[in-house]
Amino acid sequence: MSFLTRFAHALRLLLHLFQGLLTCALVFPFAGAAARTSLIQRWSARLLAICGVRLKVRHVDRAPERQALVVANHISWLDIFVINAMQPCRFVAKSEIRQWPLIGWLCAQTGTIFLQRGRQREVRRIFEGLVMSLNGGHRVAFFPEGTTSIQGTVLPFHANLFEAAIDAKVTVQPYALRYSGRDGLAPAALEFVGETSLLQSVMAILSVRDFMVELIILPPLASHGAKRRELAQASRQAIADALENGARPT
Description:
250 residues, 7-stranded mixed beta sheet, globular
């Protein structure tokens, strides 16, 4: 791909980010919840298209729960927008994302809850907010690995926030995310691990722009009578099995 082509794609992405900023600043204050949800969904789908990512949604059991704690494996910064393009959620994300240029502010305006690790009081405050959001009928999502990993590897799940589903008496909805290139293999350009910066990741993706992401909606897990570690382990196992075996829709 030529430099001019990459520059054109980068410019389109930058303009799309500024459009999102203007929408959050000028439209969101006057829009109802349904309108904001629709705007987030369309904007996220458009971002994927600009990055050359095609979204395929597969239902292994049934359509996703309307009120649930959503958990997924974590590969790329694109994961949030993949899920939002299918059905917007309130996300819990590490506090570092708030510092990302443009994207951090957009995430904050669309209801992302930022979690500062290692501060127990902060975790408790976030936890109480999650329970309130779930009780209010919202879908809340987070990545239990706590960081991105190379596709094909599912790191251990942190169990703390699974307690919110138990307290709110809602199901846990696992999603499995899998990216592939034209050759069907995991694209190296999507790797967002180690010292890779956000800018480096964005430019790598725009240099290829030919990916498919499969979002596999797995059967929900009942939280009633369960323990948070059991929910974390069951969610991780369901996602790992789907990625390893290629879950088939029913």
